[in-house]
Amino acid sequence: MALTHIDPQGNAIMVDVGEKAVTSRTAVAAGRITMSGECFYTVQSGQSKKGDILTVAQVAGIMATKRTADLIPLCHTLNLTKSRVEFRLLEEKRAVEAICTVSCDGKTGVEMEALTGATVALLTIYDMCKAIDRGMTIGGVHLVEKSGGKSGHYVSPGEGAP
After folding, report:
1. Active-site residue, selected from the candidate residues 7, 105, 127, 133
2. How far apart are CA 121 and CA 98, in angstroms?
């Protein structure tokens, strides 16, 4: 399969979606941040000097979905109809899982927006908690599911899916 963002001469291009049909599209992405026990308790309790860490991270993730085309050079600007970031606290792993769901009615998918939203939410948790634990790790960011468009429905078969 050929890469869609490279023309035959090897130049970077933004894919022409002008002839594609408008369909309802949804994507879900997730990732995790793992931290020390003290840091996890701070996140879990909502007792941070900087405020409610998860609420701030939630807003940051949603804002990021709306700015994805500004961050990823060849992404199309999309009129999102839904952007949601949720968290699961995984106490036994001292981890927080961010799950970002994005939807739109458009000519191209929202996978990049969902991946960006989940990643920025996790980065925001890191930023707000780095005074407690600089050894936090972010990982496992992946597309969980997508629907709509020519390629149809996809569900991640991989490890790390929520």
Report:
1. 127
2. 7
- pTM for this predicted structure: 0.90
Identify the structural domains of the chain with CATH numbers, from first to last: 23-148 (3.30.70.640)
What is the C-alpha to C-alpha distance for residues 36 and 83, in angstroms, rounded to an integer?
A: 29
| Strand locations in the chain (E) | 23-34, 80-90, 95-106, 137-147, 154-155
* Residue pLDDT, tens place only, 62-95: 999 999 999 998 899 999 999 999 999 999 999 9
Residues forming a β-bridge with 146: 27, 154
Tell me whether residue 127 is one of the annotated catalytic residues: yes
> Rounded CA gap, 36 and 57, in Å?
18
